[in-house]
Design a protein that fits this description.
By secondary structure, this protein is an alpha+beta fold. It has two domains: 208 residues, 2-Layer Sandwich (Alpha-Beta Plaits); 116 residues, no CATH class. The longest helix is centred in the C-terminal third of the chain and has 20 residues.
Length: 343
C-alpha cells in the first residue's frame, strides 16, 4: 500500500530526477508533517507586482479570501540558478520563452508565502481558482489576475504551486527543510483550531513593504505601447510638420489622457487607424517601424529585438521592464490581444 511519503516522492520525481530536497524533507519530517503537507499552499508574488505597487492590495485580498499566512521569505532578485531550480527550463522548450520567463524574475524581488485555509476545498485547488487563468483578460471576474490588472500571460502577478511536491520545489530557494517541516506542522495545527501569531499585516509591515514601489501603478502594455507610438510620431512631426501626423498625435494624446484618467484600457482601434492614415507622410524608416508595431503579427524574439532596438533611433529610451512588457505581449499577439482591443 502506497504511503503519503511514497506519494510525495513519486510526485516530486515526476517534476525532476533531482529529488534531494524531497528526500531531505522526508528524512526530517515525521508522518504527521508529511500528511499535513497536503494542507500547505505556496504563493509567489512576482517582481512585476512589486513594480506596479500592488502587493499590499493583494495581501488584503488574500485575507478576505480566507487564506492564513504561515511563513514568508523574499529574494531580490532571483538568480538564474534559483529560477531554473524552481522552474525546469526544459518545460519551456522555446529558448525565447525561457528568456522571457527568466528575465521576468530578474526584474526585482519575489516573495514566497506559505499558506493554509480552513475550508473544505483542497488548498492547491483553491489557490488555482483564486489566481485565475494565465492570460488575465480571459481570467474570470473575481480572480486575482483579473481584478488586480495583470499585464499579460507572462507578467501575471502571482504563481501558485499545483501540489505538495511543487510546494517543495518552487519554494526551495526560499525556505530551508526545517522551515518546510515547521510550516507543515503549523498547517495541521491551524486546521485543528490553533492560532498563529503571524497575520497579513505582519507580512506586509515587517516583510514586504520595504520592497514595494508605489510610483508605477499605471504601467501597462497599452500605456507603454501608446507612448512609444506617440513619441515616434512626435519625432516625425518635428521633422515634417505634416498635418496628418499632427492629427494622429492629437488622437494619440486624447487616448493616452483617457487611459491615464480612467486607469483602464481604452479602445484604440480609432487611434491605430489614424496612425495608419498618416504613415504616407512619414519617412520610409519610420513607416517601417510603425507598420511593424501596429500590424502586431506574431514574430520571433530576434525580430522584436530589432524592432524595439530601432525605437532608440527616435531618442526613446525604454527600461528593462518596459521592454519586457512590449516583447512579452507582442510575442503572443494571437493570445494576448485578439481578446482585447487591437485584433
Amino acid at each position: 500500500m502506497k504511503t503519503p511519503a511514497d506519494d510525495l516522492l513519486e510526485k516530486y520525481s515526476d517534476i525532476t530526477p533531482d529529488n534531494g530536497l524531497c528526500i531531505d524533507f522526508l528524512s526530517l519530517a515525521g508522518p504527521t508533517e508529511i500528511r499535513n503537507l497536503d494542507y500547505l499552499g505556496l504563493i509567489l508574488i512576482t517582481p512585476e507586482t512589486f513594480i506596479l505597487g500592488r502587493v499590499d492590495q493583494l495581501l488584503r485580498r488574500f485575507d478576505l479570501d480566507g487564506l492564513i499566512p504561515i511563513d514568508y521569505a523574499v529574494i531580490d532578485p532571483l538568480s538564474e540558478d534559483q529560477i531554473s531550480y524552481m522552474f525546469i527550463p526544459n518545460w519551456i522548450p522555446e529558448r525565447f520563452r525561457w528568456w522571457l520567463f527568466s528575465n521576468r524574475f530578474k526584474l526585482g524581488p519575489t516573495a514566497a508565502i506559505l499558506v493554509t485555509h480552513l475550508g473544505d476545498m483542497d488548498i492547491h485547488t483553491k489557490l488555482a481558482k483564486s489566481k485565475g487563468y494565465r492570460i488575465p483578460i480571459i481570467a474570470s471576474e473575481g480572480t486575482w489576475r483579473r481584478d488586480f490588472g495583470a499585464i499579460n500571460g507572462v507578467l501575471n502577478l502571482v504563481h501558485t504551486a499545483d501540489n505538495p511536491a511543487y510546494v517543495l520545489r518552487n519554494g526551495g530557494p526560499f525556505f530551508s527543510t526545517e522551515r518546510f517541516v515547521n510550516a507543515s506542522s503549523s498547517a495541521g495545527k491551524i486546521r485543528s483550531g490553533d492560532a498563529l501569531d503571524l497575520d497579513w499585516n505582519d507580512v506586509w509591515v515587517y516583510g514586504l513593504a520595504g520592497f514595494s514601489n508605489r510610483n508605477s501603478s499605471n504601467i501597462s502594455f497599452l500605456g507603454t505601447y501608446l507612448n512609444v507610438l506617440q513619441r515616434i510620431l512626435h519625432f516625425q512631426w518635428q521633422d515634417t510638420k505634416k498635418s496628418s501626423i499632427g492629427d494622429a498625435l492629437l488622437s494619440m494624446e486624447v487616448a493616452i489622457s483617457d487611459f491615464q484618467i480612467s486607469e483602464s484600457e481604452v479602445n484604440c482601434l480609432d487611434v491605430i487607424q489614424c496612425v495608419k492614415n498618416c504613415m504616407k507622410d512619414c519617412s520610409p524608416a519610420t513607416e517601417e517601424i510603425i507598420s511593424s508595431l501596429i500590424d502586431l503579427k506574431n514574430a520571433p524574439k530576434y525580430e522584436w529585438d530589432k524592432i524595439i532596438g530601432s525605437i532608440g533611433n527616435y531618442g526613446i529610451l525604454l527600461n528593462d521592464f518596459e521592454i519586457l512588457i512590449l516583447i512579452s505581449t507582442l510575442y503572443y499577439t494571437d493570445q494576448e490581444l485578439s481578446a482585447r482591443y487591437l485584433l
